[in-house]
Amino acid sequence: MKALIVDDSMINIKVAQKLLEHFGVEVHFVLNGKACLEEIKNNSYDIIFMDIMMPEMDGVETFHHLKEIPDFQTPVVALTADAKTGAKEEYLRIGFDGYIAKPIHLDELKVILDKYKEE
Fold first, then answer.
1. pLDDT tens column, 51-95
2. Cα radius of gyration (the chain)
3. Cα 60 vs. chain centroid, distance in angstroms?
4. What structural domains does the chain harbor?
5. Is the Cβ–Cβ distance between 76 and 88 less than 8 Å?
6. pLDDT tens per residue, range 34-44
7. Is the pLDDT of residue 117 over 90?
């Protein structure tokens, strides 16, 4: 399985990378939404973990741009510190394929990975 992490914080990327590698996932990363859109033009991924709060282009805007790409089918999981009540439901309603709150818990990550490894 090959994952793309989109996050403007190298600390958050390193933490997510370590956790994903624990499950045998090949990890690539970019530091913002615009870089994500460029990366997707040239590479394919099995799953994308998208930070929501990023400068220039936030995760929701980036997500909408991804969904405009013809034949784009990659699951996109919101990966955010936004853990307010109803946040998960809000991101799922927008169309994200999953939601993981930071700090990331291994059991939640495993559930997401298991769901998309099967597809």
1. 999 998 999 999 999 999 999 999 999 998 876 788 899 999 999
2. 13
3. 11
4. 2-105 (3.40.50.2300)
5. no
6. 999 999 999 99
7. no
pTM: predicted TM-score of the whole model, two decimal places:
0.95
Q: How far is CA 91 from CA 39, 66, 76, in A?
A: 23, 15, 11
Burial 91-110 (b: 16+ CB within 10 A, else e): beeeebbbbbbbebeeeebe
Phi, psi of 104 (to 5 degrees): -75, 135
Q: How far is CA 2 from CA 7, 15, 49, 94, in A?
A: 16, 16, 11, 24
Cβ atoms of residues 63 and 36 within 8 Å = no
Q: How far apart are CA 60 and CA 112, in angstroms?
A: 19
